[in-house]
Design a protein that fits this description.
Number of strands of chain B: 0
Order of helices and strands of chain C: HEEEHEEHHEHEEHE
Helix content of chain B: over 70%
Number of helices of chain B: 4
Largest interface: A-C, 45 and 54 residues
Chains: A mainly alpha (78), B mainly alpha (107), C alpha+beta (247)
CATH class of the largest domain in chain C: Alpha Beta
Shape of chain C: globular
Distance between the termini of chain C: 42 Å
Oligomer: heterotrimer
CATH architecture of the largest domain in chain C: 2-Layer Sandwich
Number of domains of chain C: 2
Low-confidence stretches of chain C: 6-10, 129-141
Mean pLDDT of chain B: 71
Chain lengths: 78, 107, 247
């Protein structure tokens, strides 16, 4: 069976992706700039995804952390 | 199956419509770009709806081979024309280059 | 107002950045720092508390700012909280007040929905490609079908095939979301589904009653361990209920 804890890097990336997808409203970002031409909305999407894939910031996996233990810490504030 | 296809088309069009700003910038320097975007978006919306309709006709089997060929070629030409328009309306690479600050330039 | 006069006054910045909205009287823990390391305070407006910090201008979108924003919202997770998305900046408190009043109905609805609840995220990925999604080439959306020589018929038929594939994929995505949801049954109060590109499938946001948190975690864990059909589930949370802040 696939075991989530065997792929820590995957989970760090997922935690970061999940974080950004929650905090950032893509609709707001996309409509923010009047000089973007029509087709390039897709570039921005890709831009965000490229960022997320290349970010090598290690974050703690936020998997099933109960409230009683450590709060899910996203990023080291470095 | 066609309910899902209709839902997918609707989502696609909504996403396209969302790319339009709520207000067209009145700044003279930006005015042309704003209108160009509006025009491009409307044509693109239409193009997608038309393609969707054509596919339904194709699937329903109500097109002759000759009609299929003509329709398909028309859409291919429309697609190329859109590409030309984008250049003609002066939507340049610079317009494509989005500065995300710390997130870096895209291009 | 000159810089020196402002400093003498002791408060130079009128702009406010908002992180989240809570019921009246729910203030941030002392010492909580927001963007630009500025103190976060609770601002009461007509029966609601908005957590804010001062900011000269709308903050630029960046990973550090996003993480800081989340760290502030996270501090409210033990409360009933309506998280705001990144970028809620107003030139001054009265503009903020106007904004709150304008969206009051939505805020009340959201507060009611998230009362006593937290959010969990379930991200479903296909096992075959369990490596992180590669960055895709620049223009992805309208990937036109490749045709060897310009042929109207060929193009139309390729379009039709693409439509069918998309519809099948959507059915697969919906089916998976439904299966996860049904497996969790009464533990899920509400759900938001996001459709993802391959090799990912869907991202689910589940609203869960606080007392059910351990049961949700146990049950979703058993789903992960028991899953044999080629999917990996990445579960994150609990989150403040970001995905349920708007209708």
């Amino acid at each position: 069976m696939p075991d989530p804890s065997s792929a820590p890097r995957d989970h760090d990336r997922v935690a970061l992706v999940e974080l950004v997808n929650r905090v950032v409203d893509k609709g707001v970002v996309l409509n923010g700039e009047i000089t973007i031409s029509v087709a390039d909305i897709d570039l921005l999407f890709v831009g965000l995804r490229v960022l997320l894939c290349s970010a090598d910031r290690m974050t703690e996996p936020v998997i099933l952390e109960s409230r009683a233990s450590a709060a899910p810490a996203i990023g080291g504030g470095s | 199956m066609s309910d899902v296809e209709a839902a997918l088309l609707r989502e696609e069009l909504e996403e396209l419509a969302r790319t339009l700003p709520p207000r067209i910038e009145a700044d003279p320097e930006k005015l042309d770009v704003g209108l160009a975007r509006l025009v491009m978006t409307l044509i693109e919306l239409l193009r997608r709806v038309l393609e969707h309709q054509a596919i339904r006709r194709l699937d329903a089997g109500t097109l002759s081979e000759e009609e299929e060929e003509r329709l398909g070629m028309a859409f291919l030409r429309l697609r190329d024309r859109m590409l030309e328009l984008r250049t003609t309306l002066g939507l340049t690479e610079e317009d494509l280059n989005l500065d995300l600050g710390p997130l870096g330039r895209l291009l | 107002m000159s810089g020196r006069a402002a400093r003498e006054r002791g408060s130079a910045v009128s702009g406010v950045y908002a992180y989240c909205v809570l019921p009246a009287g729910r203030h941030p823990p002392p010492g909580l720092l927001g963007l630009d390391d500025r103190p976060v305070v609770g601002h009461e407006i007509e029966g609601l508390t908005t957590w804010i910090s001062r900011s000269e201008s709308e903050p630029a979108l960046g990973l550090d700012a996003v993480e800081r924003h989340h760290r502030v919202v996270e501090s409210a997770i033990a409360e009933d909280v309506v998280p705001l998305r990144f970028g809620a900046w107003q030139p001054d408190l009265s503009a903020l007040g106007a904004r709150i009043r304008r969206t009051r109905a939505e805020l009340d609805t959201a507060l009611e929905l998230v009362r006593g609840r937290v959010e969990f995220g379930v991200r479903v990925q296909e096992v075959a490609a369990s490596t992180p999604a590669r960055a895709e080439p620049a223009i992805r959306a309208q990937a036109e079908p490749a045709v060897p020589a310009p042929s109207g018929k060929g193009y139309l038929r390729a379009l039709s095939r693409r439509e069918k594939q998309r519809a099948e994929r959507r059915l697969q995505q919906d089916g998976l979301a439904r299966r996860v949801r049904e497996f969790l049954a009464e533990l899920v109060v509400d759900e938001r589904v996001s459709y993802l590109d391959a090799p990912e499938v869907v991202a689910l946001a589940h609203l869960v009653n606080r007392p059910d948190e351990p049961y949700y975690q146990a049950r979703i864990r058993s789903l992960i361990v028991g899953e044999a059909e080629g999917y990996i589930l990445h579960v994150t949370g609990p989150w403040p209920p970001y995905s349920f802040a708007a209708p």
